[in-house]
Amino acid sequence: MPHLSNLTTATTPPSPSEMGGAGLRAFFNIAKQWRLTEEQQIRLLGLTGRSTLFAWKSKAVKGPVKLGPDTLERLGNLVGIWKALAILMPQDEIADRWVHLPNDNFPFLGEAPLTLMQFSMEGLAQVRRHLDARRGGWG
Questions:
Q1: Neighbouring residues of 51: CB distance < 8 A, sequence distance ≥ 6
Q2: Cβ pair 20, 70 in contact under 8 A
């Protein structure tokens, strides 16, 4: 019988700083696709000022960036929203515009999804749940 250590892989999970750098690089690519203003980027990341946004943008290009759990959660939701849109709307231009367009579905109540996403971390989570439900055939 093989020894248990022979069955495990030598890979280790990414460190929080590796996840932070990758998450920020993904975010800045999404921000470009969605044509987000600096102010929208700041609100989506839960920041209080431009200096942190510019510092993170500079550091993300170079590699790892240590981020707190709230920011990592925000980034995870944003990447999840982007992925769900890519699946639901295979035409990039439509998917990229969706966050800016008024939407009568719950929970948007006639507002653009981006408005709800900028409001709070819970707003980001609501948009992601909405899209995940549509993607899974529940909505």
A1: none
A2: no
Nearest to 96 by CA among 30, 7, 13: 30
CA-to-CA distance for 105 and 94, rounded, in angstroms? 17
Could you report the per-residue pLDDT of 16-27, keeping only the tens digit for each? Answer: 667 788 899 999
Q: Where are the beta strands (DSSP E) in 53-133?
A: none
**Residue 109 region, left (φ>0) first, then alpha (ψ -120 to 50), else beta?**
left
Domain ranges of the chain: 16-135
With 0-12 / 13-18 / 19 or more C-beta atoms within 10 angstroms meaning exposed / middle / buried, residue 124 is buried
CA distances from 1 to 5, 61, 116 (A): 12, 47, 56
Residue located via tokens 């515009």: 97
pTM of the entire predicted model:
0.84
Q: Which residues contact 132 (CB under 8 A, 6 or more apart)?
A: 80, 84
The CA distance from 133 to 127, in Å, is 10
